[in-house]
Amino acid sequence: MILEEERRAVIRTCQRMQRLGLVVGTAGNVSVRVGDRVVVSPSAVEYQDLAPGMIGVHDMDGRPVDAQLRPSSELPLHLAVYRGTGAQAITHNHAPASTALGLVVDEVPCSHYYSGMFGGPIRVAPYARFGTDELAGNVCAALQGRLGALMSNHGAITIGPSLEKAFSLLPYLEYVCEIQLRAAATGLPVKTLDEDQMAHVLEGLKTYVPTRITG
To answer: Which residues pair with 42 in a beta bridge?
Structure first.
């Protein structure tokens, strides 16, 4: 079986997202790029039932190379992000705080220095129906210079140079969104970090590596 370890990594990541409450049912998807091939989770299969042979391998035009099942409906989004960024892995989820915040803002300000982990203020991609080229274009634009973005009326996405890195960002993105929601709910002004403060944060984060999450 080609790319068996990458297929197993996609399964582990899907199951870890579920254990951490970052997805509801199968409403999320994961992929990793290996050269000109993309290993991606299938559509509408319970994560606990996944086996390596169910994880499809497609080329960069979306054609199946070795795929028993229909790929995630968001395969066009994954392919567009790979073409438009330097990402080598993608995780997409519908976690509560990030999904909720994407309903009320167009950008998440730097209210917590963890925003620096994503490259700065977290953008919200305008809504477009799932699985469409329009959604793919909107998300690619929101990810320019960033490692994560929200998707209006939809969910969130993180990218990285590896699947482990992309996944490790998910809980931090959900945390940033949760505290922003709670702060905004007070009705009081929300303190944010200015450009100079964020520049110091970004410098400090260059050597920061999150502890592996095994939830």
So the answer is: 71
Catalytic annotation present for 46: no
**For residue 90, which amino acid is it?**
I
Whole-model pTM: value is: 0.92
Closest alpha carbon to 30 in 11, 48, 54 = 11
Ordered structural domains, the chain, with CATH: 4-205 (3.40.225.10)
Q: Active site residue: 4, 5, 46, 74, which one?
A: 74
- Alpha-helical runs (H) found in 3-157: 4-19, 75-84, 96-101, 133-142
% of the chain residues with pLDDT over 70: 96
Asked whether 17 and 170 are in contact (CB, 8 A), the reply is yes
Q: What is the band of 210 on the pLDDT scale with cuts at 50, 70, 90?
A: low
- State how far the Cα of 118 lies from the Cα of 113, in Å rounded to an integer: 10
Distance CA 72, CA 28 (A): 9
As a dihedral over the C-alpha atoms of residue 175, residue 179, residue 181, residue 186, rounded to 10 degrees, the angle is: 170
Structural element, H or E, at residue 172: helix 163-185
Give residue-wise pLDDT tens across range 121-170: 999 999 999 989 999 999 999 999 999 999 999 999 999 999 999 999 99
* First-to-final CA distance of the chain: 28
Return the closest-CA partner of residue 13 out of 163, 190, 176. 163
